[in-house]
Amino acid sequence: MVLVLAVYSLLGPLVETLLTDRAHYVEGKTATNPVVAAIDDIGGMIVPIVAASTVLFVLLYRRVSGASLFLVVLPGLMLTANEFVHGRVPTFGLLLTAAAGALLVSVWVKPSDLVVLGHVAGLVAAGSIIANYASPATVTISGGTGTFDKSLTGAPLLAGIFSHSNIFGMFLALSLPCIFLVPRALVRWPLLILVGWALILTSSRTALVGAGAMLAVVVLSRLLPRAGFVAVSVIGAIVAVIAVIRIPFVETDPEAYTYRGSIWIYNREALGDHFLFGLGAHWYADNYAVLRQVLSSAASHAHNLVLTTLVQGGAVVLIPWLVLLGFALVGSATDPVRASSVAGIAFVVGLLAMGATETPFPLLGWGPLSASALVPLFVFATRHHLDRDRAAFEPGAPLTRAARRGRWA
User: What count of other Cβ atoms lies within 10 Å of the Cβ of residue 190?
Assistant: First the structure.
């Protein structure tokens, strides 16, 4: 199931890369390839139907945690119901996050299964690095002909199969915790090297900050006893939450954070006093022509996880997402297995760090970052409920497999 959701996320970008002339591609201006649009439309209809059918089928044969299902589907259901407030008829695309969460819970996906995402990231990173030397015009922004002051290496920004290097960078960073779960060092280290190499070539500062936060969590887990590590990690997560909420609402310089300040100011003014229900899930799409003229071609979201969520769904949608993040953090902090505990905490902290200046996953639809962001989030948030379900269905079976790198002392 993890692999299916990952392929669904990456199939559109891969097809777009193969069929698009990157030298003349401009993010937000070049029309989406009809094949990619068809993949999105078909997936948007099929995935919710498959999810509902799978849950109903599984319920006939084994226990599924109602609390876990409620937790993972609530954000998507609230976004869908919120459309009625704005006088719109909900679409299947609004249910894709809920459908993916229901699929993961119904088939009992566990943290150790997330290594699939680590291997996928390594494969995409390796392919992008090879293409960067063999055919750079196909995997770099503007085919490698543009000048980018933000490049850390002086070379064109590596975008891989994605439309922008920032997206590729976040994909790689979000996959790092899944690589930490790979039990064999002979496999884990090559994956980390490949992903780290590609991440540097993207020059995505947002992704590098997120990756740095994740690596800091891993280092602290080795230096501190469990109690100290958990305390420091929780404090770090709280600081990250405060930053995600505070930064876009107090910034007054339009040029701050690579002109994200102007995007935040515009979004705050557009949001006005609509904090409870927001402006609607389709507000960015409906007003994109205006946003592109006033701001830039990258104005299809607020470049901040909290502000984007408030604009599209208001507090009624933001709160379920924050609750989900809270469950993922608490569940990981109390996880007795070192590998999954560290990976879960690192993921939450890194996701929040990137969420301060980007929107790491879309609320509407199933985008290129959805699998790498939402699949781990759903799995870490529902881990304890999953253990109880497995224990009830398989008496005498261990709740978790002991991590090959040892349990917490």
Answer: 14
Q: Are 132 and 201 in contact (CB under 8 A)?
A: yes
Residues 145, 165 contacting (CB under 8 angstroms): no
CB atoms within 10 A of CB 67: 13
- pTM value is 0.89
Report the distance separating Cα 246 and Cα 235, nearest Å: 16
- The H helix count followed by the E strand count for the chain is 17, 0
Q: In the numeric block, which tokens belong to residue 252? A: 């007054």
- The answer to whether the beta carbons of residues 62 and 393 sit under 8 Å apart is yes
- At 203, list the tokens: 């020059």
Record the tokens describing residue 153, joined without a space. Answer: 């290496």
Q: What is the DSSP string of 58-115?
A: HHTTS---HHHHHHHHHHHHHHHHHHHHTT----GGGGHHHHHHHHHHHTT--GGGGH
**CA 22 – CA 10 distance, rounded (Å):** 17
Per-position pLDDT tens, the chain of length 409: 898 899 888 988 888 887 776 665 665 555 565 766 676 667 666 766 776 677 666 665 666 778 888 999 999 999 999 999 998 988 878 888 998 898 898 888 999 999 999 999 999 999 999 999 898 888 888 655 555 567 777 778 899 999 889 999 999 999 999 999 999 999 999 999 999 999 999 999 999 999 999 999 999 999 999 999 999 999 999 999 999 999 999 999 988 888 899 999 999 999 999 999 999 999 998 988 888 888 876 678 999 999 999 999 999 999 999 999 999 999 999 998 899 999 999 999 999 999 999 999 999 888 899 999 999 999 999 987 666 555 555 554 444 444 444 445 4
Q: How far is residue 346's CA from residue 374's CA, in Å, rounded to a whole number? A: 14
CA separation for the pair 238, 86 (Å, rounded) = 33
Angle at 392 between CA 388 and CA 395, to 5 degrees: 120
Where would I find the H helices in 251-314?
256-271, 283-286, 288-294, 305-313
Give the total residue count for the chain: 409
